[in-house]
Automatic annotation (TrEMBL):
<keyword id="KW-0659">Purine metabolism</keyword>
<dbReference type="InterPro" id="IPR015908">
    <property type="entry name" value="Allantoicase_dom"/>
</dbReference>
<comment type="similarity">
    <text>Belongs to the allantoicase family.</text>
</comment>
<keyword id="KW-0378">Hydrolase</keyword>
<dbReference type="InterPro" id="IPR005164">
    <property type="entry name" value="Allantoicase"/>
</dbReference>
<dbReference type="Pfam" id="PF03561">
    <property type="entry name" value="Allantoicase"/>
</dbReference>
<feature type="domain" description="Allantoicase">
    <location>
        <begin position="190"/>
        <end position="317"/>
    </location>
</feature>
<dbReference type="InterPro" id="IPR008979">
    <property type="entry name" value="Galactose-bd-like_sf"/>
</dbReference>
<dbReference type="GO" id="GO:0004037">
    <property type="term" value="F:allantoicase activity"/>
</dbReference>
<comment type="pathway">
    <text>Nitrogen metabolism; (S)-allantoin degradation; (S)-ureidoglycolate from allantoate (aminidohydrolase route): step 1/1.</text>
</comment>
<protein>
    <recommendedName>
        <fullName>Probable allantoicase</fullName>
        <ecNumber>3.5.3.4</ecNumber>
    </recommendedName>
</protein>
<feature type="domain" description="Allantoicase">
    <location>
        <begin position="19"/>
        <end position="170"/>
    </location>
</feature>
<dbReference type="GO" id="GO:0006144">
    <property type="term" value="P:purine nucleobase metabolic process"/>
</dbReference>
<dbReference type="GO" id="GO:0000256">
    <property type="term" value="P:allantoin catabolic process"/>
</dbReference>
Amino acid sequence: MTAEPDWVLLPDLASRAVGGGVPWANDEFFAVRENLVTAAPPQFQPSTFGAKGQVYDGWETRRRRIDRDGADEAIVRLGLPGVISGVVVDTAFFTGNYPPEVSVQAVGVDGYPSPDELCALDWVDLVPRSPVSGDTRTLFDVLSDRRFTHVRLRQHPDGGVARLRVHGTPVPDPRVIDRTWLDLAALANGGMISGCSNWFYSSPANLISPGLAAVMGDGWETARRRDDGNDWVQVRLAGHGVVHLAELDTSHFKGNAPGWVTLTGLRADGEVELLPRTRLQPDTCHKFRLEPGADVAEVRMDILPDGGMARLRLWGSLTDAGADDLVDRFTDSLPPGQNAAPGWVR
């Protein structure tokens, strides 16, 4: 079995769970375009027929009869604009009706363009026209350091795709961030998971995803430990900052919440204790005021001994250096044609 690339562990920037959407498709006769960004894996129930045929959990277009050399298209708005490292085109359960080839393009744009405005833009190729198979996850590496806001999936010529996953690193727009009070850990603000001891049941990226966890599977949960150690996760903050408030949410974790937790700030010159060993309750959102101290670049959360957590929020402020870094990451990654001005105060 071939090992998957590391980029599949990065957040899915297109997922509905982080605000992704599908504002336009040229055809969705058999199955709606919005299924492409559903966070849950695709499902299939045989012999489930609607007025237009078998019901599929994906995006499916009609058979082309006139323009057989054309392509069907769907535009996906990234919930988290950012730098794309890889794309997964999943044709799960499409066996006789999948497209023989696909391609993927991207664009970066300010504001909230309409579908017509998006279609008129100049798009950049991420994945050239490439073959795919039915009922298969096909992974495509993307070599780009540009920040994109939308991607376009093309089926050559038609057919069905269950899911489109767009893995990468979020790059927030500093013009809409208040540097004096923000969640320094949030994916939407540029936070990222930088290390984790165990993610047997679910991804630690869930901890810093937008919104509340709907079910236990929306959080981070480790396997049961049978030794004297403990599990931990490490977050690279949006930028160097000072953490004032920690929000530790064990919602939905009732028989498997951690017993205790600690928070440790990481700096170039060492570690600083942010939250000493503190008891947690199951299925509870805990809020702990922290003593403002030195600025930190990363925070490690140790759960004792193991278990699950729904969300981790680290509220605070960016330092001058942290704010400058946030601005530089944005401006340095803008694609051609996207204007960085006017805007912000460093």
